[in-house]
Design goal:
There is one protein chain. The protein has 7 helices and no strands. It is mostly helical. It folds into 2 domains: about 10-80, Rna Polymerase Sigma Factor, Chain: A, CATH 1.10.1740; about 110-180, Winged helix-like DNA-binding domain superfamily/Winged helix DNA-binding domain (Arc Repressor Mutant, subunit A), CATH 1.10.10.10. Helix 1 (about 1-30) packs across helix 3, helix 5 crosses helix 7 (about 140-180) and helix 6 packs across helix 7. The radius of gyration is 20 Å and the shape is elongated. Keywords: DNA-binding, Sigma factor, Transcription, Transcription regulation. Belongs to the sigma-70 factor family. ECF subfamily. GO terms for molecular function: DNA binding; sigma factor activity. It holds the Pfam family Sigma70_r2.
Length: about 180
């Protein structure tokens, strides 16, 4: 009967935390379907170790760590079918609101970061974890978290500035073509 109690405890935890856990997974991988797969994989892996988590208040941190490790495994195992291009395709925005456009751009820009950098940025800024909490969750020193975050934010700034310059150059080119056509 102890095993059915284990199942109920785990099911109750998942039912209560599934939305927050899916948001965390969504921040780690850009594709919503991949995020669901990531969360499901992490839940399966966590279920087998559920009884070993003595302090269930740390279950979120444990699951985040499992998701980060799983995402890293996927990244390392991926086939390199990607072809580098000079121009990235425009981010698609379905509803047209500025907030969603900014979010789509940010998710797209996060893709330029290495997995370790993305993990640090997500935990520090989206999950609003402290430097110490982030270091503990990722198994690194606070100094490594700080330096990784510094480099990641610099890379994000550089990417956003690059995209802004590309956008303004495209606008100038389009205006020039309109003048020539007139």
């Amino acid at each position: 009967m102890a095993s059915s109690g284990k199942v109920l405890d785990f099911e109750e935890y998942v039912r209560n935390r599934q939305d927050a856990l899916l948001r965390s997974a969504r921040r780690l991988v850009p594709d919503p379907i991949d995020a669901q797969d990531l969360l499901q994989t992490a839940l399966v892996r966590t279920y087998g170790r559920w009884e070993g988590i003595a302090d269930k208040s740390l279950a979120d941190a444990y699951l985040r760590r499992v998701m980060i490790n799983t995402r890293t495994e996927w990244w390392r195992a991926r086939k390199l079918d990607e072809v580098p291009t000079e121009q990235l395709p425009d981010a698609s925005v379905e509803d047209g609101t500025e907030q969603h456009a900014d979010r789509a751009l940010l998710m797209d820009v996060l893709g330029v970061l290495a997995p370790k950098q993305r993990s640090v940025v997500v935990l520090r800024h989206w999950e609003q974890m402290s430097t110490e909490e982030t270091a503990e969750a990722l198994g690194m020193s606070t100094g490594t978290v700080k330096s990784t975050l510094h480099r990641a934010l610099a890379r994000l700034r550089q990417e956003l500035e690059s995209r802004d310059l590309d956008f303004h150059a495209l606008e100038r080119n389009e205006r020039g073509q309109e003048r020539c056509a007139a």
